[in-house]
Amino acid sequence: SGGSCPNVSAVVLIKVNPMPTLTGATQAAAVCSGSAATINLTGLLANSTSTISYTINNVAQIPITSVVATAGGTASFTTPALTFANNGQTLQITGVTTTSATPNCSASFTTNVTLAVNPTPTLTGATQAAAVCSGSAATINLTGLLAGSTSTIAYTISGVAQTSATSIVASGTGTASFTTPALTSANNGQTLQITGVTTTSATPNCSASFTRNVTLSVNPLPTPTVVKDKDFTCESGGSVTVSNLPANWTINQTGQAIQTLTGTGSSSTISGLIAGNYNFTVTNNTSGCTSNT
């Protein structure tokens, strides 16, 4: 007898992996020269793991592997250390390969990021503007700073760290100055060393270490001795002797009578003084330093 063929049906499931996606890329924040930058990605396949191919200034970089996206499709990767030469250059995402599914699917992109890299602080020289008298501050002149920058200057005197000088503004040619605390004659000949510069006019604040030395020049104050030789009498005026004078001096007399005397030598007698109180100060005419009253 004749038969009939059975009806046979089959269901075949076809699995197709999605193509990688990418909607944006940005630099998380500017960095200092010598530091790596973080590149944030958006629009990746949710929860995917990818390899990111990219260039910097059209030069292919080593692809970044194992970049894991969140459920929202965001992820980030870190570049190698950048230099100030990279500032303003273009980092371009050229491809994304999804490695969390087999086969690994790839897609090409031209998503650009303009890199922001701050320069490392510079300093070429430091000098003392002029010798100072004991008890006065010294002005330290700096050269070779980043033009127009604002900086904090770290320094030591005779190996002892000082309070950093802040808000130091460089000119358009990179020159600036700061003032030390009051110095004493004990500081004369000691070394003031600039140990670091931090640029505070850009974020992030970039720092660099230095060993720029300045030999301090601090002149001592005159230390005269005043001795009364003779009191005033009806017959003659009184007199005093001022000793321990510098080689070239000016004596300023104030009080009952005022006069200014100049001369040389280690002592001077002032006579013809009327009765009363007097003060004497001595100026070293070579250094310009004046004794205390």
Report on the architecture of this protein.
The chain has 293 residues and is mainly beta. Helices cover 0% and strands 52% of the residues. The protein contains no helices and 26 strands. It has strands spanning 24-27, 31-32, 36-42, 49-56, 59-60, 64-68, 75-81, 90-98, 105-114, 117-118, 125-128, 132-133, 137-143, 150-157, 160-161, 165-169, 176-182, 191-199, 206-215, 218-219, 225-230, 238-243, 248-255, 259-264, 267-273, 278-284. Strands 4, 5, 6, 8 and 9 form a five-stranded antiparallel beta sheet that branches.
H and E order: EEEEEEEEEEEEEEEEEEEEEEEEEE
Termini separation: 143 Å
For the report, how would you describe the main beta sheet? 5 strands, antiparallel
Strand element count: 26
Low-confidence stretches: none
Mean pLDDT over the residues: 95
Class per helix and strand makeup: mainly beta
Shape verdict: rod-shaped
Number of separate helices: 0
**What is the CA-based Rg, rounded?**
39 Å
Helix content: under 10%
β-strand amount: over 45%
